[in-house]
Amino acid sequence: MSSSDQPTTADAQHDPADSSGGRLPRLWTRTLGDLTLTYVPDAGVHMIPTRVYPASADEDWTDHGPHMTDAGHLAMGCGALLVERRGKRLLLDAGHGRISGEDPEHFQHGFDHVQSLPHHLRRLGVDPASLETVAFTHLHDDHTGWARPDAVDDPRSLFPNARWIVGEGELRGLDPASGPRLAGQSERTVAVADGTEIAEGVRAWALPGHTTGHTAWILDTGDGRRIVAFGDAMHSPVQVRHPDWEVVLDHDRAQAEHSRRRLVRFMAQDDVFGFGVHFADQQLGTVDDAGDWRPWEDEGSR
């Protein structure tokens, strides 16, 4: 890892003395080739593991201590990835948005530090109104958060001037009765096919199953490396080892498993890294020769 690849920003909430994977997600910035990537956290989530992964049993989690909190919950995060290249910026996903954290789903134990994405953008000196593109992996609430019509007082959302980009098929899978998921959804949303380049070195990769049009985004660093931001194709590093473990919210379980296996094979290649937005404090990493998730910071990361 070169000096330019080291994290340049750390959130004060993160305790570097805590070596467990149960830490809250933190703000970080890394430069890889032509790209500058910044993870912008919005919330930490403590999950009940056997409810998130109903195919798993309590005993299956004894070997996954690094991903668990002291209370035995699975640590996850919600946030967005800011991608910058030669003065151009785009955002991948839009966090969890305006939630109280006081009404968790049945598979969630609780939340930490909710609604923090606007604060972190201010810290970075990024005006949300300056962002022209927000691309989504899918349109679940914890990814559309600050782009929703009710996100802020302005009905145009936190990002009033952005166009929305989604994978082909995602809009067709929505329930019209639930209302628009995005501010100005019908006017501002562009659906793109598999392989479409939406910005220099950023292209769509269809990984359906979690939702009908779930899409990963492959980023070309310009120096031979690739990064895949894979959204909810996987929710935790444990799924790299257990791609057969479906997630409770998967729309099509067989298709989602097929997509996970494709993703693991892709990330096992040389010079390919993955970005898992829900991967607590281990979002950036790769798949090692043993078939495990290896976080970027670990010695020996490719």
Tell me the major beta sheet. 8 strands, mixed
Task: Sketch the topology as an H/E string, one letter per element.
Answer: EEHEEEHEHEHEEEEEHHEEE
Radius of gyration: 18 Å
Task: Identify the overall geometry.
Answer: globular
Number of strands: 15
In terms of topology, how is this protein built?
Blueprint: E1 28-32, E2 35-47, H1 49-52, E3 74-85, E4 88-92, E5 108-112, H2 117-124, E6 133-135, H3 141-144, E7 163-167, H4 185-188, E8 189-192, E9 197-199, E10 202-206, E11 215-220, E12 226-229, H5 238-241, H6 253-267, E13 272-275, E14 284-287, E15 293-295
Parallel strand pairs: 4-6, 6-7, 7-8, 12-13
Antiparallel strand pairs: 1-2, 2-3, 2-5, 3-4, 9-10, 10-11, 11-12, 13-14, 14-15
Description:
The protein is of the alpha+beta class and 302 residues long. It has a single domain (24-295), classed as Metallo-beta-lactamase, Chain A, CATH 3.60.15. The protein is 13% helix and 27% strand. It is built from six helices and 15 strands. It has helices spanning 49-52, 117-124, 141-144, 185-188, 238-241, 253-267, and strands at residues 28-32, 35-47, 74-85, 88-92, 108-112, 133-135, 163-167, 189-192, 197-199, 202-206, 215-220, 226-229, 272-275, 284-287, 293-295. The strands form two sheets. Strands 1, 2, 3, 4, 5, 6, 7 and 8 form an eight-stranded mixed β-sheet that branches. Strand 11 and strand 12 (226-229) form a beta hairpin. The longest helix has 15 residues, at 253-267. The chain starts with 27 loop residues before the first strand and ends in a 7-residue tail after the last strand.
